[in-house]
């Protein structure tokens, strides 16, 4: 990784762009001191490169902190890169972020005597103070040693800053003592995510103790998961060795768990078991908790399996690297996939084992978050978070649609979207439809279809005759309806009934449900009713009966971004 750091520091934008385009590379990579690439671009003052890293999700975000708690804004301010400071602020960097010493970027600009940078930060802090998102005492905010920015400035700069503060309506002599925690808007979402986990634990519904009955309802799996005593490949120690050997990584399994907590959805074509594990030895996921799905694939004893197994391995070899997408924050990558023979001599009489490894997220799927479990347990999600979910999903789908060739095997639905601890919606690529046929292995496709989210043409035509991009847009429209109403699409019908009625009888979701939701919110004086009206319009566009008339995700992103901003302003105003 030293090469990409040197390219960033030397402002070699072409090489950095190629590096970011490679899905094998993680743009949120950090060095031993947790410096991101955006930290180094800000340190050197490379505006164009920093802008590219920030807007493409590189560097872990504009507010990423290194080991000392410094953000890229700290780095830019400490070196007097005023234009870069202005650009980071335009990208909504937190102007009052503090490091481990309690210093803000303004502390550094004053200490190093950069008047233009200090004035830029002062004006931004004043504007943020008027909006209520940060205290309006930027010059008097003390660090943990009792020093405020005005104390660190030279006399000429201190006079200039005092005059500027007065003109901005600030009291330059007002002091704010140091406080050890400073919560940003992104931190508040992380707090909400942790509160959801606490509510799960208090209600007795966690990833480790969900009942088989609840699991069948949540995941619509044709059969319950196996008990720990019914291991597919013997004791956990044996399973550890087999998976570690086939993946080339050191993997330790901890305990069985439910499907809902991992982001894996329904199963087809064989029995399976899901484990929580720790994967070691890989730079991208070192010491990380992972969800490990082990499938036992049934086979047809009447055909020669040798060629079928070889074909399946070739397909996995081609597909799995494309699913290891690390450079899009809205995508949860598949970390590894492999197939091995049964444990009894490799003669296929014990079946085949397909292993999928994905990151472990405790909050589980969007479906669980919106609809809860059989007992009715669910989490209330406000309009602001719904708007941001819609933007996250569209951003991830836009990335997938621009892959060359496009990734058509991903099934877009609320069960294949997982939520991280910061409440970011991520497309779980472990839910792609892995081919396990035809003929030799039963099932044809590993993942069970979810017809409630599928377009009419994808249910009525062969896959090769379907416009994948248009079909995904229809699925996105169903998700908008689901987010807006927080209802299960076509609840009360079996999946097979839903598929038949959509394909042959014209069954559709009612747009009136979204209109009623917007009207009820407006009548109750709730914020975000405008977002609901926009969702109704976007739903109608996305579910156009003519596939060629549906918009592309790239065209929706500016609209969704405006909806999210409007919802955030409404939330702040209320």
Automatic annotation (TrEMBL):
InterPro entries: Ankyrin_rpt (IPR002110), Ankyrin_rpt-contain_sf (IPR036770), Kinase-like_dom_sf (IPR011009), Prot_kinase_dom (IPR000719), Ser-Thr/Tyr_kinase_cat_dom (IPR001245). Residues 203-237 are annotated as: Disordered. Keywords: ANK repeat, Repeat. It comes from the Eukaryota. Residues 251-560 form the Protein kinase domain. Residues 203-214 have a biased composition (Polar residues). It holds the Pfam family PK_Tyr_Ser-Thr. One of its GO terms (molecular function) is protein kinase activity. ANK repeats lie at residues 68-100, 101-127. This is Protein kinase domain-containing protein.
């Amino acid at each position: 990784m030293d090469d990409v750091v040197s390219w960033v520091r030397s402002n070699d934008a072409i090489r950095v762009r190629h590096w970011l385009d490679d899905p094998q590379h993680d743009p949120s990579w950090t060095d031993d001191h947790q410096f991101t690439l955006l930290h180094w671009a800000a340190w050197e003052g490379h505006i164009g490169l920093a802008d590219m890293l920030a807007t493409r999700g590189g560097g872990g975000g504009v507010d990423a902190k290194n080991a000392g708690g410094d953000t890229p804004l700290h780095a830019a301010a400490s070196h007097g890169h005023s234009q870069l400071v202005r650009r980071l602020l335009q990208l909504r960097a937190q102007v009052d972020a503090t490091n481990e010493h309690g210093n803000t970027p303004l502390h550094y600009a004053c200490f190093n005597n950069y008047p233009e940078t200090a004035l830029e930060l002062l004006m931004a802090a004043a504007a943020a103070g008027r909006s209520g998102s940060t205290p309006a005492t930027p010059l008097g905010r003390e660090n943990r040693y009792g020093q405020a920015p005005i104390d660190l400035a030279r006399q000429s700069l201190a006079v200039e800053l005092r005059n500027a503060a007065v003109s901005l309506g600030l009291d330059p002599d007002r002091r704010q003592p140091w406080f050890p925690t400073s919560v940003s808007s992104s931190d508040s979402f992380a707090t909400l995510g942790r509160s959801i986990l606490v509510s799960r634990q208090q209600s007795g519904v966690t990833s480790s103790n969900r009942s088989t009955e609840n699991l069948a309802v949540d995941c619509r799996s044709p059969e319950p998961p196996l008990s720990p005593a019914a291991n597919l490949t013997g004791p956990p120690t044996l399973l550890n060795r087999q998976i570690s050997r086939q993946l080339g990584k050191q993997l330790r399994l901890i305990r069985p768990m439910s499907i809902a907590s991992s982001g894996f959805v329904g199963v087809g074509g064989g029995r399976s078991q899901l484990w929580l594990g720790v994967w070691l030895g890989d730079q991208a996921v070192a010491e990380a908790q992972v969800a490990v799905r082990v499938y036992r694939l049934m086979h047809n004893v009447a055909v020669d399996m040798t060629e079928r197994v070889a074909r399946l391995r070739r397909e996995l070899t081609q597909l799995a690297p494309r699913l290891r997408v690390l450079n899009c924050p809205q995508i949860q990558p598949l970390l590894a996939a492999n197939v091995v023979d049964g444990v009894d001599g490799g003669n296929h009489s014990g079946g085949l084992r397909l292993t999928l490894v994905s990151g472990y997220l405790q909050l589980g799927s969007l479906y669980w978050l919106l609809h809860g479990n059989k007992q009715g347990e669910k989490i209330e999600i406000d309009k602001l978070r719904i708007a941001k979910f819609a933007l996250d999903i569209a951003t991830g789908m836009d990335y997938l649609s621009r892959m060359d060739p496009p990734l058509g095997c991903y099934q877009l639905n609320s069960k294949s979207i997982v939520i991280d601890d910061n409440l970011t919606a991520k497309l779980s690529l472990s839910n792609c439809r892995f081919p396990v046929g035809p003929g030799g292995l039963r099932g044809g496709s590993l993942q069970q279809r979810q017809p409630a989210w599928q377009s009419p043409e994808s249910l009525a035509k062969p896959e090769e005759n379907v416009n994948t991009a248009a079909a995904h847009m229809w699925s996105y429209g169903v998700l908008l309806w689901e987010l807006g109403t927080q209802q299960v699409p076509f609840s009360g019908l079996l999946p097979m009934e839903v598929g038949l009625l959509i394909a042959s009888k014209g069954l559709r979701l009612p747009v009136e449900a979204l209109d009623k939701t917007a009207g009820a919110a407006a009548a109750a004086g709730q914020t975000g009713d405008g977002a609901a009206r926009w969702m109704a319009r976007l739903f109608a566009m996305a579910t156009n009966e003519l596939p060629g008339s549906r918009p592309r995700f790239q065209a929706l992103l500016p609209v969704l971004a405006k909806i999210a901003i409007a919802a955030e302003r409404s939330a702040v105003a209320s």
